[in-house]
Amino acid sequence: MSKIFVDILILITVYNPLEAAIVLLSIKNENDDVGKIAIKSTITVFVLSFLIVFVSSFLFSHLHSDFINGNENLYISAVKVIGGAILFWVGWIMVSGKRASNLVLNKKEKKLAKEKEDISIIPMAVPVILGPGVFTTLLVLGDRAKSMIQKEELFIALVFSVFVMYLTLRYAQKVISFLGLHGIRIISIFTGLFIMFVAVLFFANGVRGILTFV
After folding, report:
1. Radius of gyration of the chain (CA)
2. Quick one: the chain helix, strand, coil %, rounded to 5?
3. Which of 83, 128, 179, 206 has the smallest count of CB within 10 Å of its CB?
């Protein structure tokens, strides 16, 4: 049960639903149905996350290329190093008081998004919610789940985390209004600190794993 809680905490943190809600409100049009956008974005994120966690981990465990030469542990260690660096950067941006979404969606892209008829998949699901940091985190969590029980626990954590994402997007206006600027700032700082903590663990484990092959 404790592992499920940890996975949920990590997933919700890296998905960063509050940041996604802020972006949604900033790029949607007046006539857009927030409920439809929320459900479509959530389903897209869940399907892609499931594929990243379970399908890619299976493929990399069974289909070894000449480059990897059968050492899938070297591959996942490299992913941890890269993912740790990306997550640390994202966390630092959040702690510094800046919007993490600006890393994947600049002002020009937000303006273009407002002109789109449907923003639920692009840019909301990808890359606002499911960006490079989330992608590498999912790969690491998928690799860590070896047994069937661990895979089931990760699946439960994934479902719960995506459900929290849906609720935050569905009631984005109410959530943002309730928290206010100061509440959002405080949550953003703590979220950024936790992301940096996870990033350091990923990076350190990745470097240690790579050194075993040297």
Report:
1. 18
2. 80, 0, 20
3. 179
**Average pLDDT value for residue range 6-12:** 95
Average pLDDT score, the chain: 88
Q: Is 67 a residue whose pLDDT tops 60?
A: no
Output the pTM of the full model: 0.90
Percent of the chain scoring above 90 in pLDDT:
68
**102: confidence class by pLDDT, cuts 50, 70, 90:** low
- Give the separation between CA 32 and CA 45, rounded to whole angstroms: 20
- Residues in CB range of 28: below 8 A, 6 or more apart: 34, 37, 114, 119
Residue 190 CB coordination number (10 Å): 12
Q: Identify the residue whose tokens are 């950024």.
A: 192
Instruction: Specify the DSSP element, H or E, that contains 167.
Output: helix 148-170
Q: Which of 95, 89, 96, 121 is nearest to 24 (CA)?
A: 121
Beta strands in the chain (DSSP E): none
CA triple 26-9-19, angle to 5 deg = 10
Whether the Cβ atoms of residue 24 and residue 34 lie closer than 8 Å to each other: yes
DSSP designation for 156: H
Angle, CA 10 vertex, CA 85 and CA 154 arms, to 5°? 120
Query: What's the angle, vertex CA 114, arms to CA 113 and CA 118, rounded to 5?
Result: 70
By the 8 A CB rule, do 104 and 125 touch?
A: no
Who contacts 148 (Cβ-Cβ below 8 Å, separation ≥6)?
A: none
